[in-house]
Amino acid sequence: MVVKRERDRESSSGLQPRIERARDGTPTILVLFRTCKFVLIGGLVIAMKRENLVKITATFLSLLALLGFLKWTNSYASPYIVQILNLTAIYIILSTSYNLVNGVTGQFSLGPNAFMAIGAYASALLTMTPAEKEITFIIEPIISPLDKIALTFLPSLLIAGVVTALFAFLISFPVFRVRGDYLAIVTLGFGEIVRVFATNATSITNGSLGLKGIKQLTSLWWSWSWAIFTVFCLVGLVQSSYGRAMKAIREDETAAQAMGINTFRYKMLAFVISAFFQGIGGGLLAHLLTTIDPKLFTFLFTFNLLIIIVAGGLGSMTGSVIGAVIFAWGFEFLRWFEEPHQIGGVFIPEIPGMRMVIFSLLLILIMLFFRRGITGRWEFSWDWVFNKLGKKIRVTN
Amino acid sequence: MEVFFQQLINGVSLGSLYALIAIGYTMVYGVLRLINFAHGDIMMVSTYIAFFSLTGFSLFGFIVPQMPWYVSFPISIVLTGVLGFLMERFAYRPLRNAPRISVLMTAIGVSFFLENLGLVVFGGRPKGFPTPGLFAEIFYVKDVALSSLSLWIPLITLIFLGATFFLVYRTKSGIAMRAISRDIETPQLMGIDVNRIISLTFIVGSSLAAVGGILLAMRYPQINPLMGIMPGIKAFTAAVLGGIGNVVGAALGGLTLGLIEIFFVALFPDFAGYRDAIAFIILIFILLFRPNGIMGEKLPD
Questions:
Q1: Of A301, A270, A290, A305, which is closest to residue A114 (Cα–Cα)?
Q2: Is residue A372 part of a domain?
Q3: Do B120 and A354 meet the contact criterion of CB atoms below 8 Å apart?
Q4: Beta strands per DSSP E along chain A
Q5: B109 shares contact with chain A (CB less than 8 Å)
Q6: With an 8 Å Cβ cutoff, are B281 and A108 in contact?
Q7: How far apart are CA A194 and CA A196, in angstroms?
Q8: How many domains does chain A have?
Q9: Do the domain assignments include residue A382?
Q10: Are strands B222-223 and B144-147 parallel, antiparallel or unpaired?
Q11: B82 Cβ partners below 8 Å, 6+ apart?
């Protein structure tokens, strides 16, 4: 055991310079792959069991397949498809991190739109050059330190994440003094306060005009490497003792407290980590859409995420990922309902806004008849795959 | 002094509106322990019903004529009550034994459903609300210009509040309602038809929201499908401010919130843009320091 830990530490300290390198333009995904290789080599030594080796190889190969797929789309698919793929990755980041608070810890927060807004504004303000800011801020000039700063993408994303996490840390003190539906309404309140602030603090956010001309820095590499990183971090967290404490709070807060779990600390931890990733998701979104304004971050955004995590299965990270993928693509397919059609002899005119009617109806129907969602609390694991495969092979034999 | 007087009247009339809407929240919360997110949107629907019956419309060849306000407003109030009943019957009743968070999520779903259906059916463009002449007169009291509406609103509110208090505190159904808000199982054992009482609560709450909505539409004579969100959340704040589950508290809370909001804007005109945040800041502070609200009933966890 001791040896194992020693190796772990070695491999993690060895990662440091590699992550640093990403700042000078190396795509993070490559860094991540080097990381994976490193973990793999470390894992080879650690994992004496054949099983673990197989699982790590399977993970590595599936990541490689994803990379190949992304590389292929990046050069051959239409910009429209690339855009949806980018959105898919961002939805994965946002929904898995939202799920950490709502599904895993069982605290019904309605505030991710606030976190996204903070992340989006913070990162956008950091990457815009002083000249661009001067052009954009026509009502009031931007306040002092921000008008000179211009950073590259990764540091500004990280700062945006940290700022958002700090905000979450500060509001967690009032937020977690209440429970249940009161928690929902307080987080909703903070979301609205942030939006009202973004509309009115003209010298920081440019008010209701929003920020325009943000550089389109988000690429498939950026969005998907963050998505993979987020999923790995969150799954690791959920499987750790921290995750078990969070689940205990979800099941019965009083019992968890009686077992010696500092419930406030774990709730806050989930909230802050979730906010960090939501801030980064917001930053990626800002640099994908290139324009942001306060209207983008209304409660509607939270509602979409809520549908994703509920439809996927509240509490399951696998469910959130599946939900995010279905949502991002389903939202595009549902455009069909908004276009004019000729069915039989009946002409149906275009109905703008029909998608959201269908989506809200979907949420009600899921809650009424299908409360478990797609996966329930089931999580994907290689064991499950191998079991299934093993059965199949046995059957065919 | 004149300004103060005028702002006071404004605050009272805005507060009365919040009070009318807040009662629906507080009654539903009382019996079901549910924050009915769709309440503000129910109110929105009521203003559209009033609008279409005031102006008349034609649908699939049927022509509905223009109606005077004393016909169209009652129609709107009754139909909104029916909508409240249907919402409870089909969206909330199947979840009676489900976790409370599931019901809350359904309520959010219903709210978005109504808003988006409103956007599809009524269109996103705001419509001007034709205020009947009786409510649009302006008269002067010692140089202070007053619209007759700002006096009508508190008057109408008082009438409906009186009726609601009578219902809740002097009738058998009201006693049953209060019994259910204490404990939902015992009244069932004592032969009270709980579902009937809950339906009644939704009908009464939605009808009061309709009254509030119509008055709101006349005060700010423009209606759009998303107009219910803000007054809805503010009315909820008012309900919490007064002590949720308490009908008198909701009325007081609404009045307080209306006065605070109007005087904030009057005193700090530079920060008028932040007026929508006031309600939330108040809400957060109440939940932190006096979660029982003004009327102080015990807050369930």
A1: A301
A2: no
A3: yes
A4: 341-343, 346-348
A5: yes
A6: no
A7: 6
A8: 2
A9: no
A10: unpaired
A11: B203
Query: Which of A49, A76, A103 is where one domain is finished?
Result: A76
Domain range spanning residue A235? 79-303
> In chain B, count of helices (H) and strands (E)?
12, 6
A197 and B277: CB-CB below 8 Å? yes
Partners of B58 in the β-ladder: B63
Dist. CA B56–CA B109, nearest whole Å: 31
pLDDT (average), residues A233-238: 92
The pair of structure tokens assigned to A168 is: 């979450």
**Number of CB atoms found within 10 A of residue B59's CB:** 8
Say if the ipTM goes beyond 0.90. no
Could you tell me if residue A368 is inside a domain?
no
Last residue of a domain, one of A55, A76, A97: A76
Same domain, A61 and A96: no
Average pLDDT value over all residues in chain B: 87
Q: Name the minimum distance, in Å, from the CA of A63 to any CA of chain B.
A: 35
Decide if B35 and A185 are in contact by the 8 Å CB cutoff. Answer: yes
Nearest to A247 by CA among A362, A377, A54: A377
CA proximity to A278, closest of A312, A238, A305, A315: A305
On the question of pLDDT at B14 being above 60, the answer is yes
pLDDT single digits (tens) B58-77: 777 777 788 888 889 999 99
A28: pLDDT strictly greater than 70 = no
Crossing angle for the helix pair A354-369 and A299-312, to the nearest 10 degrees = 40
In a domain? residue A358: no
* Distance, CA of B133 to CA of A203 (rounded, Å): 44
The answer to whether A226 and A28 are in contact (CB under 8 A) is yes
Q: Are residues A52 and A188 in the same domain?
A: no
CB-side exposure of A245: number of CA atoms within 13 Å? 18
Q: Which of residues 217-246 of B touch A (CB under 8 A)?
A: 229, 233, 236, 240
Note whether B278 contacts A: Cβ–Cβ < 8 A: no
Q: Cβ contact (<8 Å) for B116 and A360? A: yes
A58 lies in the same domain as A107? no
Q: Strands B62-64, A346-348: parallel, antiparallel or unpaired by DSSP?
A: unpaired
Do A145 and A260 reside in the same domain of the chain?
yes
CA distance A375 to chain B (A): 17
Look at A181 and B100 and tell me if their CB atoms are within 8 Å.
yes
